[in-house]
User: Which sequence fits this backbone?
């Protein structure tokens, strides 16, 4: 899986390779302007909280540009999103892993960094399906 480095909302830089060999990772490409994305983020936060201690993380990759990036900060704070949210204003990670710019778009990576599943869109019940995939990946 191609590596990338982005700045998090707390001003730190995070690389995908920081998690390789250690954790199952769900990349979530989203935008604050996307209502479906907002619904997904809230539900994925619950999945993250249940599975985090088992070696799972979510990286929320915001596709917001300069005109809406302030909305990302406000949304994350207001909804108490506890997983790392990364800013991809220059589309570094998007161009590598979501070139169609689909929102929301999910990529589940195993501990070895291999892609286990890709999914676009989000509907009721999808959080449960994603969690099943996560649990399966954690058991490998």
Assistant:
């Amino acid at each position: 899986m191609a590596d990338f480095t982005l700045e998090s909302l707390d001003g730190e830089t995070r690389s995908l390779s920081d998690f390789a060999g250690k954790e199952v990772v769900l990349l979530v490409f989203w935008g604050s302007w996307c209502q479906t994305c907002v619904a997904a983020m809230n539900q994925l936060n619950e999945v993250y909280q249940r599975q985090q201690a088992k070696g799972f993380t979510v990286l929320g990759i915001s596709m917001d540009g300069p005109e809406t990036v302030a909305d990302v900060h406000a949304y994350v704070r207001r909804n108490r999103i506890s997983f790392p949210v990364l800013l991809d204003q220059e589309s570094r990670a998007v161009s590598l892993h979501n070139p169609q710019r689909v929102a929301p778009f999910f990529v589940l990576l195993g501990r070895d960094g291999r892609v286990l599943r890709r999914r676009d869109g989000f509907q009721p019940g999808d959080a449960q399906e994603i969690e099943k995939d996560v649990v399966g990946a954690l058991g490998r």
